[in-house]
Fold this protein.
Amino acid sequence: MPFSKLGLHPDLVRGVRAMGFTEPTPIQIQAIPLALQGRDVLGCAQTGSGKTAAFALPILHRLLKHTCPGPCALIIVPTRELAAQVETMFRDCGRFTPCKIAIVIGGVGYHGQRQALAGGAQILVATPGRLLDHLQQGGVRLDRVEQVVLDEADRMLDMGFLPAIRDILGRLPRQRQTMLFSATLVPEVERIAAFALRNPQRVEISKPTSVAGGISQVVYPVSQPQKIQFLIALLEATQIRSGVVFCRTKHGADRLARRLKERGFSIGILHANRTQGQRTAAMEAFRKGQTQLLVATDIAARGIDVQQISHVINYDLPRHPEDYVHRVGRTARAYGVGDAITLMASEERPYLSAIERFVGIVFPRAMLPNFPYDVPPLLTPPKPKTFRDMRWGRFRRRLPRGLRR
């Protein structure tokens, strides 16, 4: 089905074609017609499946049919990086329209944001904390908002934004269209939907725990002290065009980035301790191919959309299985292909087991030829214990000796 069959304004179809897209993705096919009808939508699809355009296009379509002064559409996102990504999608889709967009995020000054709001922006993309600051200072009014999107709602919950979301929603007109999009529909997200949405149409494209089909996944067991040495050897042996390396902590990311730079790799760094200017510069250099690797914490797990990422490397395993799905979703965007590589120390096995249960896959283990392992890697995944396996040993010990086998 081409975009022209979805009922979108011709200028939006023209904009999508200029972006190089000819056919909508499954989430767009199902969500866009519902949104155009004014229905509340509860959408769930894996990362990289086109959720942003699924709400951006209907919002732009409505603004072309019905303009109003001040913000008419509000998109709430958890991170600055995701806000920038959403803003870019609106600008690209609406390049042949007069719609104005403002972005309200932390880490930068208020003056430019106030100017954008005063300039008649109809679409407001915001993180919860900075938006509340503007509301409390009287710098923005939301009484004309007709469409609201809660994007990556599960991530906003993880970051503790639920009170802020409730506060913001309480300031909006009751008569509005609300859309909630998430990569996972955990019970907490369902509870947000219960008070934020009215009789929503549910659009669930794939199992919330699934990883994009084009991603090849492999685990390299290696001791924690040898991880940096192993990663350097792996990078030198692998043709990585553009990769994201995920670390668990900010200090760990800085330490790893220093070691990789010393070995001659071109590196960008992205984590919460970096200034907004540094984060923006790192992303621009990475998008333009000026840096080969982006070393990041989970702040980048949902906030970047770079089409040419060939590899995602989990230098540290995430503690929450959902974060693994979002990390590896940085590659194989828009149903492409990519590689997800995980380095696993022995103490991280419980995290890997939790991830494997979550996604329903036992990942293959591999070793790097000629690498001087301190401890030989265990390449056979542990066999999952069944209830019978766990209970039979105890029961057997209670049997009389003559009945034991």
Summary: DSSP finds 15 helices and 13 strands in the chain.
